[in-house]
């Protein structure tokens, strides 16, 4: 009896809701799953077990617990779960983001970090970023002269889209060249499809029924990208020998095509999968962060003025911000951290999965469990932060908390083996656009709306942007 007791004790699952047969606790997750999971953590603790359909799922909601999963036991949780959307949209999960842990993922990730996201490669696009952000500022300056309201959300999305296109494909593409619905609509559909809880992921045997009609939509989106990327690859192969131009990501990847340097031959589908990864990962995350940072700054005029004052001192009023100014902008850095704390672009990171049974903090985590780290909840944890609901960038003046994956109170880019390889680039994109927008302009809400009346509702997706576009009226403030 004692022996039995011991094994029973060893297999103790983390606490959590019981759930129904087959469906488990799927009904507990609504339109904003990170909020619902936060409530579960408040009830059951920082490590919650719940069954979503047939899949055991572990929700991690404190800095200490996150460190156990992403650092202490990182290797056990370094894979991604199977994912219906990724199957149809990312060429059978051939991308880095969703590919299972193993030699293929390691090779592809190495290529990303060494060839595409290295400091040298990031620098090679500096002039391009300056040009695109210059166009954005010109456009807003015109609106300022005419005293018209600007749809900041759309503007931010567009400039990020253009910069990502030029970095990945080497040029901008217009909507019509892509699909009759246009880029943004298809990207939005993609993000929706990859993030929406799909019953087929949780109850695999019903997948063929396509109850939510998602498979049909995923196949369609997959085809749109496939055709578009084929066209781009063809264009690159034709213009291969053009000298003097900065090599874009497709050029770099094509130079690896067919090579047997790595264990896997890189062929077209692999390149296409990475093209999509790079495009979506760089565009949407950064845009979402700038959108939230601008929202918080307009909501908190005191903070906005302080950022502008710093810019005035470091940059002066005679010129625009340069990338080389960024490292001197300490208060801006705090504002960005505070925005990441309250509005992490990916509130649940990307799901991990357990490669084997593991014991974490005395709890049994069964093999194949899905691990969801709720960074949105960690950013609001009163054990880690004083007045967590308040937007106070100054809190970072008193500590050395960084967002690079070492301080588990703040891990918007994840951490460990599967942590974001685009962190450097992501931070540059966010800071540069943000700094420029507040250095060049003052911002006022339309129709005399008060900052306190701003609607800060979010919509859940692979990234979690504002539900309503941010609208504001600019006034130009530089002397040039
Ligand atoms: C503000 C900008 C960004 C944010 C907030 C962000 C956030 C994240 C997060 C949360 C993950 C999952 C980490 C984990 O599972 O621990 C991730 C993974 C990833 N990110 Fe980013 N990211 C950003 C920018 C970028 C950029 C610019 C790129 C490249 C162009 C990029 C490429 C990737 C890739 C390839 C992965 C998958 C890594 C893997 O599974 O091995 N990200 N990112």
Automatic annotation (TrEMBL):
One of its GO terms (cellular component) is membrane. Gene3D superfamilies: Cytochrome P450. It is found in: Membrane. Its main location: membrane. Heme binds at residue 420. Keywords: Heme, Iron, Membrane, Metal-binding, Monooxygenase, Oxidoreductase, Signal. Its cofactor is heme. Pfam families: p450 (PF00067). Belongs to the cytochrome P450 family. This is Cytochrome P450. It comes from Ficus carica.
